[in-house]
Amino acid sequence: MEKDFIIYFICPTNKYATGGVKQMYRQVEILNSAGINARILHKWHGNKEKWLDNDPPISYNPYIFKQIKYIAKSKTINILRRITLFLLKLVSKKLESNSILVFPEFYGLNAHKITPNLPRVIFNQNCYYTFDNSTSFELQKNTYTDDNTLAVLTVSEDSQSYLKYVFPEISIHKLRLGINDKLFFYSKEKKKQICFMPRKLSHDIAQIINVLRLKGLDNSWNLVAIEDKTEKEVAQIMRESAIFLSFNHREGFGLPPAEAMACGCIVVGYKGRGGAEYFKPEFSYAVEEGDIVGYVDKIIYIINLFANNADLIIAQGQLASDYILKNYSIAHEIDDVVNAWQCTLKRYNSSF
């Protein structure tokens, strides 16, 4: 007979849309739909990502988040901090003895020191953040090698390869991310609009936008920065836009360009490591990171195609959408999440 358990995804709260938080919310919903008891664990009561429509079960535990802060910054737990932790523990959700904690990768290699007796899973959505907040850690016993770590979940071929190289002994499951085709779907009706997300690589963005304007961007084309938008608003902008500028930067996967492709945008820009698996030359235009002139030239080339060979642009947008929605479907994501957790819970039941 399998043991009872409850899975808590330790989840930060962001004011802006992030793919990492979106995927934690999605995974909790998938697990509960499959009859697996899972919850989001936020810091404070009232925390919820308002830019998402997802409504997973949520618990709150400021005690754990304060522990994470102290450990990440290697702070000595003095008397004042002990009192702070004691008071926060009183108002925090008590974690059951049958809990499994899911830590995002960016909390570092000392996360196993938080509730060390509870089993954990690492949801590593960007392998390039693995060593963040880890100025010092034990080589032989860290969050990835600790006996209570059941598995690592990751989201791309690139991240899986990286993690297998660095931590060859641990069980690693790759999840295919699913694009919500109720929001991100193909639209043939395109405005002369170029959209992009300005949160990362702002220095590159400023150069590319200004050089593009200096090279004589037609005034009939609009540049739209996607920020402070709900998921529905993001999808609407992408469906209306002819071009999406990718500023992926060493991403675990890089969800926004894939969502833009699903909407039929012509995507130009940086693959960002994880994005290499879907940045296909048949329908996208990759640029080497930092190649500002090459980036602007590609945008101008696509704009000219839009004016002189609209049928080709429409065909490429349709091809991109078909590819993304076939290979990164919600059904694939559900299968991968459920299968990965079934394997992980078998280990849990045999070990705890």
Structural features, described:
The chain is an alpha/beta fold and 352 residues long. It has 2 domains: 6-178 and 330-351, Rossmann fold (3-Layer(aba) Sandwich), CATH 3.40.50.2000; 191-327, Rossmann fold. It is 39% helix and 16% strand. It contains 10 helices and 12 strands. It has a 7-stranded parallel β-sheet, sandwiched between helices. Strands 9-8-10-11-12 form a 5-stranded parallel β-sheet, sandwiched between helices. Helix 2 (62-72) packs antiparallel against helix 3 and helix 5 (202-214) packs across helix 8 (292-308). The longest helix has 22 residues, at 330-351. It is elongated. The protein starts with 5 loop residues before the first strand and ends with a helix. The mean pLDDT is 91.
Count of separate structural domains: 2
The first-to-last residue Cα distance is: 13 Å
- As a percent range, the share of strand residues is 15-25%
Kindly report the CATH topology of the largest domain: Rossmann fold
